[in-house]
Prior knowledge:
CATH class of chain B: Alpha Beta
Low-confidence stretches of chain A: none
Oligomer: heterodimer
Number of domains of chain B: 1
Largest sheet of chain A: 5 strands, antiparallel
CATH architecture of chain B: Alpha-Beta Complex
CATH topology of the largest domain in chain A: Archease, Possible Chaperone, Chain: A, domain 1
Amino acid sequence: MPAYIAFEGKVYDVTESPLWRNGGHQAVHEAGRDLTRELNNAPHGKEMLDKFPIVGEFLWYKEIEHTADAGIRAYGATIDELFENCAYGMHSIMLENYDVPKSKERSFDFELESDNLESLLVKWLNELLFYFETESLVFSDFVVKINKKLKAKASFERYDEKKHGYATLIKAVTYHNLEIKKEKDIYVVEVIFDV
Amino acid sequence: MKLKKIGECRYEIPVDYKAGMRVPGLIFANESMVENVSEAVEQVANVATLPGVLKHSLAMPDMHWGYGFPIGGVAAMSLENGVISPGGVGFDINCGVRLLVSDVPYEDIKGKLRALVDRIFKEVPSGVGSKGKLRLSPEELKKLVIDGASWAVDKGYGYADDIKCIEEEGCMKNADADAISKRAIQRGAPEVGTLGAGNHFLEIQKVEKIYDERIAKAFGLFEGQITVMIHTGSRGFGHQVCTDFLEVMEKASKDYGITLADRQLACAPIESNEAQNYYGAMCCAANYAWANRQIITHWVRESFDGELRVLYDVAHNIAKFEEHDVDGKNVRCCVHRKGATRAFYDRSEIPQVYRAVGQPVLIPGDMGTASYVLVGTEQAMKETFGSTCHGAGRLLSRHQALRDLTYEGVNSELRDKGIYLRAASKKVAVEEAPEAYKRVDEVVDVCEKAGISKIVARMVPLGVVKG
């Protein structure tokens, strides 16, 4: 029985491993899932995965080039996930060192609404920028639920130059050619930021 | 697409290039520049589809790909059926330049330059997240955005005479503090008197060459003179105003049935409440920027031995109501300048002292190259709604710059030219390296050849303070 697991955006084929027989590992971990968090808490390190072939990659977001400004192309299996990935993408432009996932100690709730998804997306990202600029808050662990309104949770910490490196100031999120599209069951959007 | 050359440094985008264009596009460029503008051309064409756009959608030679409007874009809208678009001004409302001129010759300052740059770097907060030394209450900030530069002068930052040599005398009269959101106040209050980051800078320069003796004399410029250039804008306050109103306009465009070629062009009819509120808020942000440059001027003066006079202060990102010649008639219209400078000639808006020669136009170069003082011309009044270029214009994306260049390389290149750099961030210094920009010399050359402004003086940097 084939077994695949995901770790930090990469999909590993662990079928050959006797420890993953029947799609399970140590009776607690299941194949077919993203095990990033579990592996980070495991008694062994991630080097265990080095011997297995990488058969795929999750595309969360990637930076795209723009002469004057900065942008991302983000992906999501659902709209909720797309919004989460846009938030991660924006932070990765803002901060030199931005590692996810982070602590879940302090959490922040958001509630936003708009009459269409694109302007809701702009509003969501601008909301995060606002708190970065006024309170120096760096967010992560986004959980977004959109059901007419956007409700979201995120953990946060204070910006620390030693930890996060230099921060690029994003002035705002633009509506430039903004369109959420569906390509082969995956939601895709390109967002341009004014930097 | 092949652009049609229609005159000296002039290229046309025909009105049938794109569905919905109401007027042609007119691009000022030389032959090599025009090879590299494809994406910006689309944006010039998109602007030409906006309701009430007059004569032509313009792009200056420093044009580059922006969002919504191109950077370097100018468009005038009719008051009868035209629109105002926050995207035609941009997020950094009244990002602009002020030039201070000294009476100190270069020889006197030569040995003290590093110390002076260090002092200014300490006095003027810069970089991301930099907070100002002033702490304004929301009520005080509201006063500031109504009065602009004169708020600062009244508080002791500068002299009453400074005000006379600022575009609009440093105050847009239509500022409406009721149109400002709480968030704009929250972002703006701690940032008064800060330079910011990105392309903003403060530079100590030397006048290297005078091109027009008569006009230079009228401006009080001479070769070997020390000047200080301040390039910054309305900081988070302006960004928030634009953000707030893009959301309003996004909805308004639909309500008024305006078809948009790009959502970032969201707009509303000039007479509508949405547009009037935006204009009132935009004026507040413009005033914030003028107060900001006025306060920074004061700190520069405190760091400097000797007098510094304000030569002029111009906005690069703004929308204004002005009268212009349209088909032989004097028409009041709303001129959007996004990365473009007003370049008036023979107009009452020009300070009395310069009226005989024309309005000073200040063109910052990129870090470590050269900057220029130009003057407005009659041709600009006829053809570009009294507008010209605003700077060098980006050539490389920030990524490309980071891939191709290093901080050590950039810094040593500047050092070789005798320029001392103090940067809050090495990364920004690389992103803003001279190689990332078009050559400012070429940009102003095109403006002069096209006749939309005239070169008066060229300044070279001696010391740079970078956010």
